[in-house]
Amino acid sequence: MASSAAVTVRAPVLHAPAQDHLQFLPDALIEVGADGRIERVAAAETADLTRPTTVLPRGRVLVPGFVDLHVHAPQWPQLGTALDVPLERWLQEYTFPLEASYRDEAFAARVWDELVPGLLAEGTTTAVYYATVHRAATRSLAEACVRHGQRAFVGRVAMDHPDATPPDYRDASAAAGIEASAASIEDVRTVDAGRGLVRPVITPRFAPACTDALLSGLGDLAAATGALVQTHCSESDWHHGYAIERFGRRDLEALAEFGLVRPHTVLAHATKLPDEDLDAVARSGACIAHCPLSNVSFGNGVFPARRALARGVRVGLGTDIAGGAHSSVLRNAAMALDVSRLLDDGVHGAPGERGGVAGSRLDATTAFWLATRGGAEAVGLDVGCFEPGRPFDAVALDLTSLPTPTVDRDHADLDAELLAERIVRLAGARNVETVWVAGRCVRSAGSSVPSGR
Amino acid sequence: MASSAAVTVRAPVLHAPAQDHLQFLPDALIEVGADGRIERVAAAETADLTRPTTVLPRGRVLVPGFVDLHVHAPQWPQLGTALDVPLERWLQEYTFPLEASYRDEAFAARVWDELVPGLLAEGTTTAVYYATVHRAATRSLAEACVRHGQRAFVGRVAMDHPDATPPDYRDASAAAGIEASAASIEDVRTVDAGRGLVRPVITPRFAPACTDALLSGLGDLAAATGALVQTHCSESDWHHGYAIERFGRRDLEALAEFGLVRPHTVLAHATKLPDEDLDAVARSGACIAHCPLSNVSFGNGVFPARRALARGVRVGLGTDIAGGAHSSVLRNAAMALDVSRLLDDGVHGAPGERGGVAGSRLDATTAFWLATRGGAEAVGLDVGCFEPGRPFDAVALDLTSLPTPTVDRDHADLDAELLAERIVRLAGARNVETVWVAGRCVRSAGSSVPSGR
Prior knowledge:
- The first copy, chain A, is 36% helix and 23% strand.
- By secondary structure, chain A is an alpha/beta fold.
């Protein structure tokens, strides 16, 4: 474990230890040990005056760092562009050619050094990354996470199906893909060097891009190594229909048979799952990365997050850079609220005829939890809220640019629910002032703090 | 006309003179006269070296200032909160009590001095404001706009219906409401003092809050004074049904009979208008303030912006602070794109059964135009794009925090459409560096530049 200096932060603190449990401590102390873990959370009057303490200025609120369950790292340069075409065209014409260019290691390193600080600037302390098919680029992404101090899962993308991938950007064979994936797991573990900061993730891109042999081999690799798995699941009408046509069963069932639906497996999107599949996901312990902004462009419908949660499915949020148009987890949290209203009420016509599903609305507390503890729990990390023993992954939000809530009250006077709602609906990178990961300050006052290590 | 120093700005310039016409000038000069109007737009190599020139640093793009057609100024303190209740409860329990407190002039002035710079920080150079029923608070809002240099329409809210408004927050009678509205028009014109910066707007809140006598009297006032009119129109199922029950006709028809649907009248929301009404709006020359973020909470459906534009309706964007959860016009432009996708495709179920209306998608160029020239044209202002004779209302966006688009290219190398899409989807207050209104720099490097006048 890399060492950090012990740190104590004094600030108003907002966190959500559970989906329905928001806690606001108007003047709290969080004491963090040299191992980067929280030792004590207490009221400020119990301060240990012998410890050096960082006191956040007025108008700041300390929240857990945000967890982004679905990021295509190589798509960073195309963020916010060309989202007006169907997924298959978007992949073939824009995305695969860009991803193929990461065979150039210098280019890859340059993008990673923009991407990782860019996400830290959004307050994203944990990211679950798809890298590319290239081992070297994958390894250098892990190195960038260590260098900039971001907690991450980093996955080499496995894809070998000649029908859905270009000749210059795929694994040469299933065996080659499995071997490279296994080697990449070791690469990432080597880069992490026992810090516990960066972990590997087995990454079959999505079933259409993978042969049965590759999917099956990666399922075996997951069982053998215990590494996390991520893939896309029933993202769109096309994707959902594809699986039924190819496998004679739904995408989730096929992935499960290949051994890929394991505890904490990240299933991205999953907009098309019937209740039966949601229940199967819940039983498996896998999770769904809800990507509300991306789903607007590619999802053919709104993911029923409230229904999934009610059925016991682990859910977190994903930006899905760059299928999602924005890099902010908070913006996706706000979008999760907004699209849940449209799912509830429908989009056009008379009440009851608008295509809506009553009872679909998410509340702001759930959205806040999804962005923090919900996402962490989904992938089996112990971050996401402030309790003794957990690593200190946190963001100091400067809320002074937000409207003053009411006369003679400041942000700290709001009740927890209203404060969470304001943060979800209004805050963004503009408000992210300081970021800590595992007790280490990795971003402060608008600039990143790269490690000398 | 208040004097401004002549100014010349050199920068990459992006603007949309028409809905389907985006223009990108990678290295342009805009020369602005002492009257705040553009004298010349030209390629940089034709620079008049005798004029002092502001050269924007690398990574900046100059765009027209954003136009917000629908802002409830007194709701600023509740921005981003309590959006989880139906409109009628939201009004009675949260909004009317807050608005009533603006009888306190000191409180009002304090909020305006936060609101107006807050919107300038979002790049909003023109705002169409609902103030409150109070003449003094309305006048002081106009004063704040002059003080901070924001172009605005400022309207005293008229409302007198005892069934839909609280006793402590309404006009005492229709006659009192009409008289106060007439006086407020004069107040605002006095405050503007011929600058042409701040204009009055006749503001019957919405039909449910107004008696027939008030609506009719305000229609007469509009005809007599030529002042702009704004009101809400068929915002929700409830509002739409209310009009039919009370007037025996749809809301738009009733408003028209009262003389309130005039050229450039701002009809907020209008989510429930049938094509027949959209055609009537087009014929009248009135406009619709599309408030996509607010409509998610209160609109019972998505406003069909593309259909309205195709039928010749003037359309712009509104934040609808605080029924809309965010103060950014750009965020509403992005939301206009996103909800148009859901309107097109629907939210739940199989293709064709999801409640969608195929052909509803907006493109990013239209969204950019709506945020700028579209909004300006809607209310009859000559701002919103860069052409000789038009006032120079502009925003310098610092795009350096956005991902570098592709290897070895910077933002200025993107084609116009991609650049507009990135700005709509990714930019926000964080990127707003300098703001000019009528040639005067009103915000620079994160701080407002209040006038000494």
